[in-house]
Amino acid sequence: MQEEVLSPDDRDFVTALGTGLEVILAFDAEHPRMTLSEVATRTGMNRARARRFLLTLHALGYVRKDQRHFELAPRVLQLGYAFLSANGYQSVIQQILEDITRESSESSSLAVLDGDEVTYVARSAAKHRLMAISLAVGTRLPAAHTSMGRVLLAQLPDDELAAFLARVELTPYTDKTLTDRDALREAILTVRRQGYAIADQELDSGLRSLAVPAFDAHGKLLGAINISTNAARIPVETLTDTFLPLLQAKARLIRTHVG
Q: Which CATH architecture has domain 78-257?
């Protein structure tokens, strides 16, 4: 059943709340610190309006201010932790991700689909770094080019998947990035059939990842869990032969213990 979603012109839609969240989401790996003018440009609002929202977020502790620059404060992480806590599986998921890292010596994460991106809501990081950007709770990445994104897209009904494919911008991040919509659709349908996804250096050269869906005891989709590896160290065969059984076993464990 599809959820009813308010439109911005609905009387019950709180514009100020939506704008405040838009300001928070304007900060990302490429824009960790911004001036007032940069925030205004990124959000499409005038300087006076951007200033009011930034100062309000600063007063609430979600933004830090250093002379002319603004950046997110650690309190923003509470939003991600609140998601896990409200759904009652924070400690279980975190422990399972840490077990995956311990058993594979690789990083593992849980992400959910949010629009055309995936958002990291839990993570266990290995010691070695995989990408130029730092991955953490709250990180957003394009769903089309990540293993977790494709796993989650494969769970969508056909009409929602078609709408996604029609609107998504397919940016060529590397020479391996799938930018053909028909090819991407076939890749997602393959994931739907086989139950797992591998993204091989499509988002970042050298980054190879594997993901499977995670459900609770009632069959509700919680998100996708993955293992991220360095392509120079880990061949695709290791993903399928060694890491896939591990991830599938942990997904079954989640289904047993959550819900």
A: 2-Layer Sandwich (3.30)
